[in-house]
Amino acid sequence: MSIKLKNIGLIGLGVVAGIAGSMQFDALAQKNVGSPLPIEELRQLADVFGLIKSDYVENVEDKKLLTEAISGMVASLDPHSAYLDKKAFKELREGTQGKFVGLGIEVGVEDGFVKVISPIEDSPAYRAGLKAGDLITRLDNTPTKGLTLEEAVKKMRGEPNSKITLTIARKDEDKPIIVTIIRQEIRVQSVKSKIVEPGYAWVRVAQFQEPTVEDMAKKITALYAQDPNIKGLVLDLRNDPGGVLPGAIGVSAAFLPKESVVVSTNGQLADSKQTFYARREFYGARGFGDPLAKLPEALKKVPMVVLINAGSASASEIVAGALQDYKRATIMGTQSFGKGSVQTIRQLSADTAIKLTTARYYTPNGRSIQAKGIVPDVMVDEYADGDGLNSFRLHEADLQKHLINDKEKAAIEAAKPAFDEVEEARRIAAIEKKRKPLEFGSKDDFQLAQALNQLKGLPVQISKAKPEVRKDSEEDKKDDKKEDKKANDKK
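-> structure tokens emitted (491 positions)
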């Protein structure tokens, strides 16, 4: 689609491309590349380096040239591979631990400006009075108009106790609001939960971090203490951009039988060909007990709905795909982002690394998630009157140089929409301006209400739009059947 909206990001968590990967951390190992180095091309690289040093209008430091060369080489591969300098590497490690230094706001982009989706409770932004729906028009003296979401996020990040001045445009206010905020360490709540009505629970995973499995286990145990007779559970993975792989395995394992295959990977290296099971060794920290050991047995059989949307990526797609393959839950919402690739962190020095795509992810039945995503069992829009701006959000398949889905050797374009896309985008944008920002899990959450209807056996308002599914060729269908058989033999 020609008009797309950037994914909503959390300040400090949208690492590199804004979509967090399901990541593995490895030390750099010397490997046999299998072929001699291309001497002629390396000679050209050295020639270009020399020409820049001798002829460029200004002197350029050697370190800058070489660092940019490495960065460009890695970034040319796909949207998720990247060189991580000292600052980026530090931010990535902080993000997986569920903490960062910043303002504490969830943001998106609207009309070219940064829009506040919601402030994190008790954060600097929350205490400064920022509200959902505020437009940030300036960061210090820099206009936000035209900045990418990632660029804006970087400007809002900083050192602890440093100051930043925000210029805010707020609906129903005649004059801009100027607020100075002191950056602080923010601890992100990965898991939220509540009893939404007697007998029905809601558990939301906002991002997969190192503490996610333990946090979710505590939340679920508390829910069953509050209501021992839970009749249905909604697992909310909407706008969950992914995170660390053990978190996805652990969340899946909480609802699946022990020893179930959760996900498998396949790549060029021998250690990228792996199968991950619902076992403590794949999701629990070494030297600690099983965080899922004390969960109530009823959790394995309680009827479930999993909510996903175009912002559900990577680790959240692993969970949705596993629960869908085992028919453990009904997947509801809209088609997910489609990031089914593994990013491995190869450390280059004490404070630099590269984030390199090393494999693809496959669901237990051998389906590839890459550039396709998870298609819900029941398609449900975000609102009763349509999916709003979600219809125009980016998917993995829209990104330049995205890794293809190897199960779809013949690239078949999705059917083009039958309406005028530009006019439809304008029409929907006009409606959205009048609509207050949606809080997931609230009484106004239409998709959650439909999930509860599904659990109760009541009618569900299904989306009128069809998912943009790339149809498999006959050859691919045969391959999938073979993979299904292999996966079933493992069980």
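The chain has a mean pLDDT of 83.
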